[in-house]
Protein 1
Amino acid sequence: MQPLAEPVTKLIEAFSKLPGIGPKTASRLTYFLLRSDESLALNLAQALQELKANTLFCSICYNIADQDPCAICANAQRDHSLICIVEEPLDVQAIERTRAFNGVYHVLHGAISPVEGRGPDDLKIRELLKRIQNGNPAPDGAGAGAGAALPVKEILLATNPNLEGDATAMYIARLAKPLGVRVTRLAHGLPVGGDLEYADDITLGRALAGRSEL
């Protein structure tokens, strides 16, 4: 069998490393780009370069952003006393689409999963506890002095409604309650075993409105 050209092999291998992309799908994507107009491949390459060059993690909430602090953390109109805790940046977008939440966020970047070898120290839990203890940095226009912090009164646990998400929520609740904040969890209505990013806007809106004490 004639070996593939090295650039083709490299791209197939690169696609295969992406989640949910197997060797066959990687090959189809590679050959699609080979047959397509050159501008498509060049635009994709440029978008990938800009993704790494022009994005960062917000130093307050750890969401993906193009500025630090991110637009949400820098917004004086948001309720900085209420922090919604999510697993991934995509979950922030899902909740924002409902327009039912006016607090700020904290992105854990995963959930506790012994099966996958991911423990509490691998998540942004330590940083969350510091935010609760020290308060959120006051954004410009919030009426606080330079360097002031706004106290956190409530954390809303919006981890995914599955075993890993529930375990993560319970772990955070156990650490946060002694710090004197109200700890709530998204209400029922979200599908058990599903991911937050795939929930429809109405279901998410009702879950936010009906959150309960944990």
Protein 2
Amino acid sequence: MKLPSEVPVMTLPNATLFPQALLPLYIFEPRYRQMLLDSLHTDRMFSVAMQKPGRTRETPSLVAGLGLIRVSVGHEDGTSHLILQGIARVELEETVRYKPYRIQRIRPLESPPCNELAVDALMAKVRELLEERVKLGLPFPPFPALAQAKAAEAAGFSKEVLEYLNKLTDPEQVADLVSCAVLSGPVQRQTILETVNLEARLKHLVHFLMAEITRQRKDKNR
């Protein structure tokens, strides 16, 4: 798929768009309504960037996710619901314009060659930690239905998600989709998104998963 050299940028607090992941969005701001309309009439692509923490003005993080609009449903009041599928991690470069919505030049970020043996070992560790999460009863944060479900239903759903993630064989997909499905902290997810080197990305993921499991064990022992 040919990527454009410049794209609209939607800046959102705590939002991370990973390659291959699906992100549901509700479009209601006038500027983003116009952005959506323009995108649907061109290449159906725009970027989602996390707002830099502690900034009052709109300040997108330099590494963002580029997404393709898969489904868009408009409503009578002018708002829309859509599903955006991540297709690449990109670096945001110079801003082409700010109004009516931000457009920036982008540079696709691709993983450099890595140590396959080290990656295989890290993949095995990630799967081991995911199984440990399920045993400890930890939910998958992006699925709000789990918070309202009964414990048995939540556990069953978690196992289904785990089975799906375990079927992934591409290390890139494992690193990104596991991070999307499991990590609740926006800073953690942004760290994974910004880490282009695959081995380093998996190491970050292992570290975040181990820290979460350690906290859960401590809480249970209190």
Protein 3
Amino acid sequence: MIPKPVLIIAGVVAVLVALVVIAVVWQFIGLWFQALLSKAKVGIADLIGMKFRKVDARVIVLSRIRAVRAGIPVSTAQLEEHYLAGGRVTNVVSALISARKARIELDWDTACAIDLAGRDIFDAVNTSVNPKVIDCPSRESHKNTIDAVAKDGIQLKARARVTVRTNLARLVGGATEETVIARVGEGIVSSIGSAETHKKVLENPDNISKTVMARGLDAGTAFEILSIDIADVDVGDNIGAKLQADQAEADTKRFQAEAEQRRAMAMAQEQEYKAEVQKNRALVVMAEAEVPKAMADAFRNGNMGIMDYYRMKNIVADTDMRSSIAKPGGERRPQA
């Protein structure tokens, strides 16, 4: 026979265990009953397991109820798996419901992949149903217009509005809005640049839209371009004239530099010539200094006499006289 104290202790332990179980289960009774009434049954054991796995049971249960009521076959395990992967379960379920109502093909795995890739799947589905308009250039850009120059040199400032729709099949791995804006801007610049005159662009701005649309700019992006509308085109500066003026100024400076270079070379050459003259004069002086020495040697060696010296002096004096007469203003002897 079991002693009475042991029975009392066992009874107390059983009561405590029962109270703990009731307390734990009571936390999930409301969610379990709500799921049961919504025909989206979730087991008590699953709810308790979520508690230990650090999963928000309320988010999982409410998301399953919404999915089941909308006719989307998704299990509790799938919802919990996406939650543990860091996904936004509520957002994915909302996107699936919107896609089903709009008759857009979107399965659970694709929606989870898009959500885990960091894209807003709910916004993407809404954009598929209700296309949105993208400003080109964007409002966050430091430039308010797309500037391009026609062949006649006139600058045009354009603004465009691009209507796009999300392509869910290319949302994972597809380029974002920035790529679409960049491609549209490039197309507008190319279209204006190929125009013969700016007047043709102003007369038919829709030609820009047609040209840009024909290039298939949405290839490889997560969007499908529905239309490109030129919102405004303004005339800017005469870039051609400015470029010509700048070129003329640059040519003037270049020619001035070349002329200055030639002048410097001429001055340097002149100085070289002057130095050469001074050098030659020094050589003449040196040669003249050798003449007396040669005459002395001639007297000493008997190769030259006094009469020879006098005749030479007379010739020199006669030469000096003729030179002085030949100079302007020099005196001349009267002819007989």
